[in-house]
Design a protein that fits this description.
Elements lengths: L1 H13 L8 E6 L4 H14 L4 E4 L4 H9 L5 E4 L5 H9 L4 E10 L2 E3 L7 E2 L1 H9 L16 E5 L4 H11 L9 E3 L2 H9 L4 E4 L10 E2 L1 E2 L6 H6 L5 E9 L7 H6 L5 H10 L2 E2 L7
Parallel strand pairs: 1-2, 1-3, 6-11, 7-8, 7-9
Antiparallel strand pairs: 3-12, 4-12, 4-13, 5-9, 5-10
Helix pairs in contact: 2-10, 3-4
């Protein structure tokens, strides 16, 4: 009941008009970027006098932009770290998280790869260099090409925490700067393995089962898929009700916002149901 009242209250506020000339600057995660961009397109269509710009420089750089007051919203695919929070507070910024969606982190391979699934331990052994050929896990006789996200990425940090568990990735790994680049590298390399946000998996790559569970909405939302995470938008303090920033970061609570999140391929935080 409380959830329904809160969603109804926010939805009512989002229906209010805005003063013209407002601007929202967003920076950060390449994973959250597609949500922010889709929200921006929808928001500017509803509010033509509000300008929303979205940059994708990575979660770490999003935190720095918020700290330096260079953006209004920092997209992050991981929680803000303690040192980032302290640095922000020292500059008079109070980072406030808004969890806008859930995301699975599929392990992806080329569609021609016959392997259907791996265990977390097998993925870890591949990334530390102990498993080096696909035939060792029931696949083709090909040397594994290991692709990782850059170390400034929230996606990398989630993978490092959940899969690697402090083990170091082999020096033979290649690093790419975005989820899109990861998908492109894997789709063009038959022996490759990589990982990306759920919304970046399409027919050009193949997502693997991990510990017997396939990454999809129901398994991510239930927690069954073992590599999952929340996606954040951070603001400086909680935005004042009725402002453009308030309306933007609360779009995820609306039916339209949840439809956008689902259409992109991520998992809504709540189910829109006021009946």
């Amino acid at each position: 009941m409380r959830k329904r009242i809160m969603v109804g209250l926010v939805t009512g506020v989002l229906a209010l008009g805005l003063e013209g000339g407002e601007k929202i600057v967003i920076d950060g995660s390449t994973t959250v970027g597609p949500i922010a961009k889709a929200f921006a397109e929808y928001f500017m269509d509803k509010h033509p006098d509000v300008n929303v710009t979205v940059s994708e420089s990575g979660s770490g750089n999003g935190a720095k932009s918020l700290l330096n007051k260079d953006c209004d919203i920092a997209d992050m695919s991981r929680p803000m770290k303690g040192n980032e929070f302290k640095a922000a507070v020292a500059k008079g910024v109070q980072p406030t998280p808004h969890v806008v969606a859930l995301d699975g982190l599929p392990v992806i391979v080329h569609p021609s790869n016959s392997v259907k699934g791996l265990t977390l331990e097998q993925v870890r052994k591949i990334y530390i260099g102990k498993i080096t050929n696909w035939k060792q896990v029931g696949g083709p006789d090909l040397k594994i090409v290991i692709i990782s996200r850059d170390t400034n990425s929230g996606t990398y940090e989630t993978f490092e925490k959940v899969v690697m568990k402090k083990a170091k990735i082999t020096k033979n790994a290649e690093y790419v700067g975005s989820n899109g680049a990861m998908r492109q590298r894997v789709q063009s390399t038959p022996a490759a393995i990589g990982y990306a946000g759920l919304g970046f998996v399409d027919k050009t790559v193949k997502a693997l089962e991990i510990n017997g569970v396939y990454p999809k909405r129901v398994t991510v939302k239930s927690g069954r898929y073992p590599i999952s995470r929340p996606l954040f938008m951070y603001t400086d303090k909680y935005p004042k009700m009725g402002t453009a920033i308030f309306q933007f970061v609360n779009l995820y609570l609306t039916k339209e916002g949840q439809e956008i999140i689902e259409e992109i391929g991520f998992v809504p935080m709540t189910d829109y149901d006021l009946d």
